[in-house]
From TrEMBL:
Pfam families: NMO
Sequence intervals crossing the membrane: none
A molecular function (GO) term: nitronate monooxygenase activity
Taxonomic source organism: Zopfia rhizophila CBS 207.26
Record key words, sorted: Flavoprotein, FMN, Oxidoreductase
Protein's UniProt keywords contain Aminoacyl-tRNA synthetase: no
Database matches in PANTHER family: 2-NITROPROPANE DIOXYGENASE, DIOXYGENASE FAMILY OXIDOREDUCTASE, PUTATIVE (AFU_ORTHOLOGUE AFUA_5G09600)-RELATED
Protein name as it appears in the record: Inosine monophosphate dehydrogenase
Flavoprotein found in the keyword field: yes
Gene3D superfamilies xrefs: Aldolase class I (3.20.20.70)
Length: 357
C-alpha cells in the first residue's frame, strides 16, 4: 500500500524513507538499492574526489536504478574547502533534481540549486537553523535529533522535542532524522508531524552498503550506549562508534591542558576512519554511528528493510487506531485489569540470550 505524504508525492517514491548522505558509504550500490526498494537513495557528493568523479558516479547509479535518487552535498569547515559550486553544477548538469544539503553557510549552494529547479532537503539540528533555511527557500527540512550519527550540533535536543518544535514553528514540511530504524519509528514520526524519516546508520547495516562485513556485524553486536561524543570542546561535536580510538580521543579532549586541536587530530583522522570500512578493523580509526545501533539486529537487503518498515508502520498505525473507542461504545476487555502489553501483541523479542537483553 503506497504512502501518501508530502514527501512521497514530491519525490515520486513509494515509502517515505530517505537514506541520508554518508561519507565513504553513500556510493551508487547503496543509493540505487534504497531507491529500488521504494525509498529515496542518496549519493554522497564528497565521497567522490572531484566533481567529474561525481558525474561518473551519478551515471553509474542511473544504470542501477530507474527510480528517483538524490545527491547529498555537505558543507563543512575545512582548511581547503572543496569547490562546492562545481559539485553543485555537476548535480544540476546531470539532471539530478533532489538534493540533500547539510552543514554551514549553505546559502550560495542552495541558491544555485534552487535556480536550476532542484527540490532541496536541508538537514539541520536546531529550529533556528531550520528557520534560516526556510528563508533560503528549501522545500523540506530534515530535522536531525541529538540521537543521530555524525554532527549532532551543540544543543543536545532529542527528537521528541525537536520534531514537535518543528511542527509548531516551521511553515514547510519536514522529515525526522536520527534514531530511526523501523516502521514503529516511522509511524511515530508521522504522528509528530513529519512527512517521512531519514536514516543513516540503519542503512549502513544492509547487504548492499559497500562497507566491510565486520563493521556491519559490529553494529549488530552494539547497544544504544555504544557511541561517544567527540570534539565538543571545539564546538564541532560528532557522535561516533565507541571504539578504542574514539574513547582515547575523548580522554585526550577532557584531559588536555593546552586545548589544542592538534593533540586530538591524529585520533579523529578521516583517512583512518575510511580504512575501517575497507579493512574491517573496527578499532583502526573513528567512524560515525548513531544511538540507533541499539535497535539494529540484522543485515537485510535494502528492499527487505524498506518493505519491512512499510509493513510495520502500517501495522503500528492500525494498532493505535484500535486504542480508542467511538462515542457511546464500550471498551473491549475488563476494566481494572493489567495484562500483557495489548498495544504490542505481535512484539518480536530480539536478541534473546544476546547482549542486548
Ligand atoms: C557513516 C556515516 C557517515 C555520514 N556522513 C554524512 C555526511 O557526509 N553528510 C551528512 O549530511 N550526513 C552524514 N551522516 C548523517 C546521516 O546522513 C544521517 O543524518 C544520520 O545518520 C541520521 O541518524 P541515524 O544514523 O540515527 O539514522 C553520516 C552518517 C553516518 C552513519
Amino acid at each position: 500500500m503506497p504512502f501518501n505524504t508530502e514527501l512521497t508525492r514530491a519525490l515520486g517514491i513509494k515509502v517515505p524513507v530517505v537514506q541520508g548522505g554518508m561519507q565513504w558509504v553513500g556510493y551508487a550500490e547503496l543509493a540505487s538499492a534504497v531507491s529500488n526498494g521504494g525509498g529515496l537513495g542518496i549519493l554522497t557528493a564528497l565521497t567522490q574526489p572531484t566533481p567529474e568523479d561525481l558525474r561518473k558516479e551519478i551515471g553509474r547509479c542511473r544504470t542501477m536504478t530507474k527510480n528517483p535518487f538524490g545527491v547529498n552535498l555537505t558543507l563543512l569547515p575545512a582548511l581547503v574547502p572543496p569547490d562546492y559550486g562545481a559539485y553543485a553544477q555537476v548535480i544540476i548538469d546531470e539532471g539530478i533534481r533532489i538534493v540533500e544539503t547539510a552543514g554551514n553557510s549553505p546559502g550560495p549552494v542552495i541558491k544555485q540549486l534552487k535556480a536550476a529547479g532542484c527540490t532541496i532537503l536541508h538537514k539541520c539540528t536546531t529550529i533556528r537553523h531550520a528557520q534560516s533555511a526556510v528563508k533560503l527557500g528549501v522545500d523540506f527540512l530534515s530535522i536531525d535529533g541529538f540521537e543521530c550519527a555524525g554532527h549532532v550540533g551543540e544543543h543536545d535536543i532529542t527528537n521528541f522535542i525537536l520534531l514537535s518544535r518543528a511542527r509548531q514553528s516551521l511553515g514547510v514540511p519536514f522529515i525526522a532524522s536520527g534514531g530511526f530504524a523501523d516502521g514503529q519509528g516511522l509511524a511515530a514520526a508521522l504522528a509528530l508531524g513529519a512527512c517521512g524519516i531519514n536514516m543513516g546508520t540503519r542503512f549502513m547495516c544492509t547487504v548492499e552498503a559497500p562497507i566491510h562485513q565486520n563493521i556491519k556485524q559490529a553494529i549488530v553486536d552494539a547497544q544504544e550506549t555504544d557511541t561517544e561524543l567527540v570534539l565538543r570542546r571545539w564546538r564541532n561535536t560528532s557522535r561516533l562508534f565507541a571504539n578504542k580510538v574514539a574513547k582515547e580521543a575523548v580522554k585526550i579532549e577532557k584531559e588536555s591542558q593546552t586545548g589544542k586541536f592538534e593533540e586530538v587530530a591524529p585520533y579523529v583522522s578521516g583517512k583512518r576512519g575510511r580504512q575501517v570500512f575497507l579493512n574491517g578493523d573496527k578499532d583502526f580509526g573513528v567512524w560515525t554511528a548513531g544511538q540507533v545501533i541499539g535497535l539494529i539486529h540484522d543485515i537485510p537487503t535494502c528492499e527487505e528493510l524498506v518493505s519491512r518498515i512499510e509493513r510495520e508502520a502500517i501495522d503500528a498505525m492500525k494498532q493505535t487506531q484500535g486504542l480508542f473507542v467511538g462515542e457511546g461504545q464500550q471498551p473491549v476487555g475488563a476494566i481494572g485489569t493489567v495484562g500483557k502489553n495489548t498495544n504490542n501483541p505481535g512484539a518480536e523479542v530480539w536478541g534473546v540470550g544476546k547482549s542486548k537483553l
